[in-house]
Recover the amino acids of this structure.
């Protein structure tokens, strides 16, 4: 019930100012956000990768309002790539990018986002790694998947994300399950209308399994983006039945969520990639994490009571 209210608040400028300025917010935010700067975040990357995990790094920022901001967002990723270079982690540290932060929603935004993301994918390729394109609300899906297809011509490891709550996603999975194609399957984190997306949690889960079956049976590289123990078990079973080796798929979870499970799966020999977000523009990301799980919200509200 609370999820949609929090998702609505995640778009409110007034709420952004209120939550961002509250003194108790910061310690709670650090549970989900790896740092505010690249310099704070790189040691966290080093620590996780030293402990057999892999990472995908998101420099926070969404919905830019002019092309100059989009260029600044691009440059923030280039700075991150410079910081990653001496660590020599290769594919163990990839990047996740929201194309809205690269200008996708501006007039002429498709081409602008393609230009900005191409520079980042080229720089990532130079240090032996790649980029995945996060999926945002459904109005962006066609443009994002078209940019993904364009990038894959030169950089076949560029990853796509599909959301099981969207009706279109089974078809997208069929299109994407091609050789060498990296596809992250998630449930979906935005408030979507009933005309395009399942509204019932169980329907979203059932659709997730249908999509998983397509991806596991296909020729691509499935990336299971979920903390849901049932879906993780089903993915393991489907991978086994499809005769996939442990390195022919991977699990992905968010930084700060089910960390013990991340280490447990890695210790069993699975590839596990942690999605780490960092930066000062953490409000939208943080609010989506609160909306996903009442316990996360309770954790946040408790800190108001205990500290306030
Ligand atoms: P859900 O939140 O439904 O939880 C299912 C079960 O998991 C719970 O009942 C519980 O058992 C367990 N669980 C969940 N959180 C837990 C916790 N904190 N502690 C203990 N147990 C817990 N979305 C999007 O729209 N576009 C995108 O590009 C991405 N990218 C992305 C990358 C990665 C790596 C992940 C993991 C997720 C995303 N998402 C996303 C977010 C995604 O769409 C979704 O909102 C969240 O992953 C939450 O859904 P879950 O599948 O984790 O299950």
């Amino acid at each position: 019930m609370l999820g949609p209210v929090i998702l609505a608040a995640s778009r409110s400028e007034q709420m952004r100012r209120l939550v961002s300025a509250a003194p108790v917010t910061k310690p709670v935010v650090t549970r989900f956000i790896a740092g505010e700067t690249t310099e704070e975040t790189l040691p966290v990357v080093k620590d996780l990768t030293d402990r057999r995990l892999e990472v995908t790094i998101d420099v926070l920022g969404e919905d830019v309002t002019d092309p100059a901001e989009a260029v600044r967002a691009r440059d923030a990723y280039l700075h991150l790539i410079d910081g990653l270079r001496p660590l020599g982690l290769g594919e163990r540290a990839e990047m996740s990018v929201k194309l809205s932060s690269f200008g996708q929603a501006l007039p002429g935004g498709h081409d602008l986002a393609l230009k900005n993301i191409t520079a980042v994918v080229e720089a990532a390729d130079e240090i032996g790694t790649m980029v995945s394109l996060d999926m945002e609300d459904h109005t962006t899906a066609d443009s994002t998947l078209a940019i993904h297809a364009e990038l894959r011509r030169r950089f076949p490891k560029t990853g796509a994300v599909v959301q099981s709550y969207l009706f279109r996603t089974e078809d997208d999975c069929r299109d994407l399950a091609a050789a060498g194609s990296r596809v992250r399957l998630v449930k979906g984190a935005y408030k979507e209308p009933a005309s395009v997306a399942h509204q019932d949690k169980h329907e979203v889960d059932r659709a997730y399994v249908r999509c998983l079956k397509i991806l596991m049976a296909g020729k691509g590289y499935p990336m299971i983006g979920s903390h849901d123990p049932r879906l993780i078990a089903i993915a393991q079973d489907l991978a086994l039945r499809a005769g996939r080796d442990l390195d022919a798929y991977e699990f992905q979870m968010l930084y700060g969520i089910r960390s013990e499970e991340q280490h447990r799966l890695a210790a069993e020999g699975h590839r596990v990639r942690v999605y780490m977000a960092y930066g000062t523009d953490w409000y939208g990301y943080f609010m989506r994490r609160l909306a996903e799980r009442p316990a996360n919200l309770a954790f946040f509200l408790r800190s108001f009571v205990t500290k306030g």
